[in-house]
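Translate sequence into structure tokens.
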Amino acid sequence: MENAILLFLDWLRLEKGYSPHTIDAYGRDARAFAAKNPALLAPASVTSDDIHAFIQSLGDDSAATLARKLSSLRAFFRFLRKREGLATDPTAGILAPRIRQGIPVFLTVDEAFALMEEPGLQDKTARRDRAILELLYSTGARVSELVSRNLADLDFSSTILRIKGKGRKERLAPVGLPALEAVRAWLPERAATLAENRAAGRSLAAEALFINQRGGRLTVRSVERLTRFYSKRAGIIQMTTPHSLRHSFATHLLEMGADLRSVQELLGHASLSTTGRYTHLNIDHLAGVYDQAHPLAQPDGAPSSLKKEKKNEAL
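Result follows.
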């Protein structure tokens, strides 16, 4: 079984381009199944009953965890069936536990603006942190995508950030003027930090867009910490994460009239149904849009705005 798992993980890394974190998760799940079934020496001996028994043995885990582990096994056996000639897929027909989808946490426009301004421009760390927050909100990038960007990925003339997303898929994200100005303010401090650490003989991530005080590439955890820090300082009650800014980016675009497919492209979602989670616009906004746009929203067939204009003309 271990040989098959190694082949699977190599395929995820070399052909699918999955991140090390994702590959590790798939490997842990596949090996957990193998450890629970030591008598199953080869994938060909696995049956759907074995899969069911494994899932049932994890009964105390959350629905999301069970669904993830089943998804890992499904990917593993589908790979073996398509690439290694496995006769049957033992995960076929097994339904994943239903996961309750919550409404994504997002900021209001005022909260987003307050968060952007909170770091200020007092020192090099503040300049860097403001540039990070501005880029997250301006592009809707995942935090992992942002910290992996290099300076060369940001084109100031065309105002575009090249993002490498899941499965090595690349997309071009427009960058707003405030974000570009925030990055420009950070670049002299970035150069000074690199020069200081180069003189100290430290190993540098000289190509990285965002670096820490020792000249290394900034980590996801660091961005998560700074986002929470500035959120609290800005008086935002709900816990704010980098992903909250991604949710806010999508929500605010949709509220301003962007179509769902455009937002899908900007977020780098493979499926439109994933982007559909962001259509949680408040009922007043939806009612207003409907009232303004639908020809039969009003008894006389005129949008309310047109009726108001006619009423004003009559007065």
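Note: The first strand starts at residue 154 and ends at 155.
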